[in-house]
Specification:
The complex is a heterodimer of chains A (418) and B (147).
Chain A lengths: L2 H15 L3 H8 L6 H13 L1 H11 L6 H16 L5 H14 L6 H13 L8 H9 L3 H11 L1 H9 L6 E5 L6 H11 L3 E3 L5 E3 L4 H7 L3 E3 L2 H8 L8 E4 L6 H8 L5 E6 L2 H13 L5 E5 L13 E7 L20 H21 E11 L8 H10 L3 E9 L9 E8 L3 H4 L1
Parallel strand pairs in A: 5-6, 5-8, 6-7, 8-9
Antiparallel strand pairs in A: 1-3, 1-4, 2-3, 9-11, 10-11
Helix pairs in contact in A: 1-2, 1-3, 1-5, 3-5, 4-5, 4-8, 5-6, 5-7, 6-7, 8-9, 9-10, 13-14
Chain B lengths: L25 H16 L4 E3 L9 E6 L2 E14 L1 E6 L9 E5 L2 E7 L5 E7 H14 L12
Antiparallel strand pairs in B: 1-2, 2-3, 3-6, 4-5, 6-7
Classes of the chains: A alpha/beta (418), B alpha+beta (147).
Chain lengths: 418, 147
């Protein structure tokens, strides 16, 4: 199978069978002659999907069959974004691919459409919101929602922000400090850039591996660190992490102060194992990992914890730059489904907090429906709870992801207030 | 109804303290209608008098299905904190995080001069604070939130 055929095969599984991009790619990349090329093409088509759809809608009178749509998107992507092949070769290859997938009768159509694309690429839409959707390759319905929520300027800025190529790591403060880590990096000639949350940006290379394996450093996003910092963990706190995998926040929570006890829940058994291995690698203590579905109520946890973190499953729009297939199967109905899970996890979380305790609700998404609306509805329905603060961050060029974190607190004594 | 020109940052009217509205007449109603139209056209969620060159204490706010005209508004109570991104129709191309109360109570008059009040939270609270700041010559980036 040629790399073009392989790319088609991978994309077809993603588009038609809703396979996950990263999983599908890692399964099949072994068969590639040039893995980097296949990766670039597959991720590229996913990343530019909305833009390619737009050109397709302008060039084809009727939407072609799903398989031919994939061929055309691959062709247009190669023409506009990859310079490994001259345009005529792209057209030839895509025509051959059309025959290969059993659509011999459409060879002429593919040939004609791609040639038109090269000769006369359709202009962008006049309407600025529609144009923004095409330029940033984000579905129009979603851009419209963002513009309503954040305004056009803010939306344009965060949708156009480039993601940072480096990895964000932090020192394991049980074993070392940021200062010490900087010295090690200097000695090993590892280039770094300090971030504003107590970690550093580094290029992911072999020199880091030892530090990682020894548990001196761990990869953790700025976002994830800020979320934990917002929890304001005190010495002796008993903390529950409701959706803990992969475990980064639980471990960081346990490092915030002395004698912190963390109970980390995770629904999938294989992830529970991975987390336990992570705890061991980091030489962490005070963390117990348990297999638990957090939408189910556990009577034994009632009123037990000083801080409860619910980093709930969400649409992930704040990290879309890193997961280009985020938009593919997203619609308001799937968001609606997520909000039900989110609300039920938050409801349980609040039962587990002590009087005077706090619940921290966080997501890595940008939609009000999953963020503010969840906590807003909760405090309306539960008058003994109030929103102490919340923050909505948007993706930027400096490596901040989009995320939301709200701190809810349980009033000391409701009757005294009323 | 007519669209008004939105005054851009750098113009003096944005930095002046606005005066109370004392006359509640048809002219005021027309101005508020124009402001709403101008705000919608520009995809904004709020617009204050100084942004259309009128240094009077009035503003319009529209978030989803909620619309309010604030004449002589005063924030009388607040609760909690929210930090989030803000932009401004008068400051195109610029935005930053601003800390605002999570909940506000605003006392104001409607276009006929009736005294009333409103309790708002989240985006509406943010928009009210942002617009009322305009009436005192304050722009959002004056209050930029830094970690």
């Amino acid at each position: 199978m040629s790399d073009i055929q392989l790319s088609y095969d991978i994309l077809s599984n993603i588009f038609k069978n809703k396979a996950f991009g990263s999983i599908e790619l890692s399964k099949k990349l072994g068969y590639a002659n040039n893995a980097a090329w296949v990766t670039k093409l597959v991720y590229g088509v996913l990343e530019k999907n909305v833009e390619l759809e737009y050109y397709l809608s302008r060039l084809a009178k009727k939407r072609p069959q799903a398989s031919v749509v994939i061929v055309l998107k691959m062709g247009m992507y190669c023409i506009s974004f990859m310079d490994s092949m001259p345009n005529y070769a792209v057209v030839d290859n895509m025509v051959d691919l059309t025959a290969f997938i059993g659509k011999r009768q459409l060879k002429g159509f593919v040939n004609g459409l791609l040639k038109n694309y090269i000769a006369d690429k359709p202009s962008l839409p006049d309407d600025r919101v529609e144009r923004l959707s095409v330029e940033t390759s984000v579905p129009l319905w979603l851009v419209r929602k963002y513009v309503k929520q954040y305004g056009y300027d803010v939306t344009k800025e965060f949708l156009s922000a480039n993601s940072v190529q480096e990895e964000h790591v932090r020192p394991n403060t049980r074993l070392t400090s940021l200062k010490h880590l900087c010295e090690i990096c200097d000695r090993k000639d590892i280039k770094y850039r300090l971030s504003d949350c107590g970690g550093m940006w580094v290029k992911n290379d072999k020199k880091l591996r030892d530090l990682f394996n020894n548990g001196l450093i761990t990869i953790q996003s700025v976002t994830s660190m800020r979320c934990v910092q917002a929890m304001n963990i005190r010495s002796g706190d008993k903390v529950l992490d409701m959706c803990a995998a992969p475990g980064g926040k639980s471990l960081y929570i346990a490092e915030q102060a002395s004698n912190v006890e963390v109970v980390a829940c995770e629904i999938h058994p294989h992830r529970v194992e991975l987390m336990q291995a992570y705890v061991n690698r980091m030489h962490a203590s005070g963390i117990s990992v348990i297999e638990q579905d957090s939408t189910q109520y556990i009577a034994g946890f009632e009123g037990l914890f000083d801080k409860v973190l619910c980093d709930v499953p969400c649409s992930g729009l704040g990290v879309a730059k890193k997961k280009p297939d985020v938009y593919l199967n997203l619609d308001m109905q799937s968001v609606e489904e997520l909000t039900k899970t989110q609300y039920s996890i938050l409801t349980n979380a609040c039962k587990y907090a002590k009087i005077g305790g706090k619940v921290i609700y966080s997501t890595c998404t940008l939609l009000r429906e999953e963020n503010y609306n969840i906590v807003g509805r909760f405090v309306k329905e539960n008058t003994d709870w109030t929103v102490e603060s919340y923050k909505q961050y948007l993706p930027d060029d400096q490596g901040t992801d989009g995320f939301f974190v709200a701190v809810l607190s349980r009033k000391q004594d409701v009757s005294a207030r009323e | 109804m007519a669209l008004r020109d939105i005054v851009k940052d750098g113009q003096p009217s944005l930095r002046k303290k606005s005066r109370e509205v004392t006359v509640f007449d048809d002219k005021l109603g027309k101005l508020l209608d124009d402001m709403r139209q101008t705000m919608i056209e520009a995809d904004g969620v709020g617009l204050a008098g100084p942004q259309v060159g009128i240094n009077r204490r009035l503003a319009v706010v529209e978030v989803d299905d909620f619309y309010v005209e604030l004449v002589n508004p005063v924030i009388v109570a607040t609760e909690g904190v929210q930090v989030g991104p803000e932009g401004c129709l008068s400051v195109p191309g610029r935005n930053c995080n601003v800390a605002r109360p999570y909940k506000v109570t605003v006392e104001y008059q409607d276009r006929y001069g009736n005294h009333t009040s409103l309790q708002a939270e989240e985006l509406i609270a943010r928009a009210c604070c942002h617009e009322i700041d305009h009436l005192d010559g304050i722009l959002f980036y004056d209050k930029e939130y830094k970690e």
